[in-house]
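== Sequence entry ==
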Amino acid sequence: MVNRVSDWVGRIDDLVQSRPWMRWSAPVALLFLLMGVIWGAEFLGESIVIGLTQHAPLILAALGFALIYRLTGLINVAYSETLTLGAYFGWWINTTFGLNFYATLLPTAIMSGLLSVATYFAIFRPAKQRNVGNLEMIIISFGLSIFLRYGLQFVFGYPVRFFDVGSTTTIRVLGVGVSAFRLLALASVLILAFALYLFIQKSTYGLQIRALAGDENLAQASGIRPLFVTVVIWFIAGVAGGLAGAFYGVGSNVAPFLGFRQFLFIFLVVMVGGRKSIGGVILAGIGTGVALAAMSLKFSQTLYAQLVLILAFIIILKVRGRRTAETGKV
């Protein structure tokens, strides 16, 4: 009997090690359980519904950032402007041509992806060829972020913009009134995130992306074309960021600082979820969205909620770093 239990424990451990995203299933489930026990099932339901409907684009944005970070190790601050540009692209197409919001997603995705590739060829590839250090690359990306943000303000001005989506019916979910449009947007974001996950994990191009991120020299020796795969990664990251920005914009408003306000949480979700685990990023994004909603409901101030969550992220990263260091000493 003991041997059988030990065998099952070993199998579960092997499964967790082979699928890093499973490490975050238990913490996320525990977070939901604690919220239900401490504040009640009704509060938990409200937090889940509000967290998912309002913060689901965070998952998509974090996936795009994780791709670039996994490939280059670059903390690309200018990625935040991909979200902002995606929101402006979608808003401009929606209001100028009178297209339905979902009809704007394809051109928004293409334009955001092409812009991301353009920044790679114009800024980051030449810097890499000159062997620019990581700190200098971060400074370059920060400068590019400022340039793009104020360029947007020059073109579109300072006023806050809104998508034209018309009226919609309200549906009650777990006691919370949610518009049908928001529910459809949530479903769309989750489908896009899952499709991106499958692409990275199951497709031939996804295998090449993971191989290139693991060891560029070995990948090149295996017949993988580094430049082509890199361009694909930057395009997909731009698509994910641009679509996330569009969903953020239609859920609230379109403003020059839209992406920059989200960047810190995008970065922390990738750090906590695991830059090498796409599934972990998705689960960390879900947990972050629900936690943000719960803290906002509890403190009645979004700023306080964000500060508490940032502190929690710092503690998690500190503990994880300590465990990694201890493991390395063994």
User: Anything to note?
Assistant: Strands lie at 170-173, 176-179. The chain has one domain: 37-321. The radius of gyration is 21 Å.
